[in-house]
Amino acid sequence: MTARRSATGRGGRSSLDAGLLAPALSVAGLIVVGLLSLGLLTGNLPALPGGLGSSGNGGPSRTATPSNVVIVDPRADVPGTIVYVKAGNVWLQHGNRADQLTTGGRDSMASFSPDGAWVYFVRTTPEAGLWRINGAARRFRLATPTLMRIDPDGRSEPEALLTGRVTSGSFTWSYFLRQPAVSPDGTRVALVTDGPDPSKSDVVLQVLDLATLQLTRINAPENEPLGHQDPVWSPDGRSIAYVQNARDGARGAPVIAVYDTTTGKARVLTGPGYTTPIWSHRGKYLAATRTTAFGTDVVILDGRGTELLRVTNDGRSFAPVWSPVGDAIAYLVIDHGVTDLWLAPIDIAGLPISEGERIQMTISAGLDAGSRPDWWVPEDLIPTPPPTPTPPPIVGPSTTAAPASPSP
Question: pTM of the full predicted structure?
Answer without folding.
Answer: 0.84
